[in-house]
């Protein structure tokens, strides 16, 4: 009589995936139960989009183009910047969520449980990226409703645009996770992550860098959002992107690496 085979023991990778999936569901459940923070952060780019299009659109388009007022041209110009600003606003909620976990004792509880150590961070990161994608889709729907069109972009350019958005979301999320971990409370985390909303305001999101004062141009040019916005704008409108694409990719990779190692070092630090 043959002896029944013992069930295969789960591997380290399968356990990590299982625990990360559990933490992802936990974070998505929290976002569903407490949507006020996400909605508040999402309203900011939508309000700015409507404000700049319907209040300043004619004037801004005339100033940028040097010709007559054409609101449709300014919609095409401003939407890519608003989309990336949406990601920056969404990850502020991630910083607050991570800080809440770090300061309210749940992390200490997780440390005593038989779960993969990195699954807590991975759950926050993947959940934030998914929320960023959903937020971008919502803002994009509003942009289309008010007149944004991307008729000249090819399918390959659309695919590249989606990949760029995913890279930006991943990079900003890792930075936000690090900010949340070093913040003493949720309010501090929100303040520490504020540059992720402010930087797009001083980039090429609303006006070209060449139209800014000379002393201010380096501030707008040498930051991560400007090459990402210019690349996304070129991809969505089917125009040239020049050297902006590799600058955007380099910024995303650098910020992702910085945020990852920063978050990992803080999370693995022994609690005081």
Can you walk me through this structure?
- With 272 residues, this protein is mostly helical.
- The protein contains 12 helices and no strands.
- The radius of gyration is 21 Å and the shape is elongated.
In brief, what are we looking at here?
The chain is an all-alpha fold. It is built from 12 helices and no strands.
Along the chain, the helix and strand elements come as HHHHHHHHHHHH
Overall pLDDT confidence: 84
Shape annotation: elongated
Q: Which stretches of 5+ consecutive residues score pLDDT under 50?
A: none
Tally of DSSP β-strands: 0
Helix content: over 70%
Query: Counting H and I runs of at least 4 residues, what is the number of helices?
Result: 12
Structural class: mainly alpha
How would you characterize the largest beta sheet? none
Detail the topology: elements first, then pairings.
Blueprint: H1 12-33, H2 36-54, H3 57-65, H4 71-103, H5 106-111, H6 119-145, H7 155-182, H8 186-192, H9 195-201, H10 217-221, H11 225-237, H12 244-268
List keywords for this structure.
elongated; 12 helices; mainly alpha; 74% helix; single chain; 272 residues
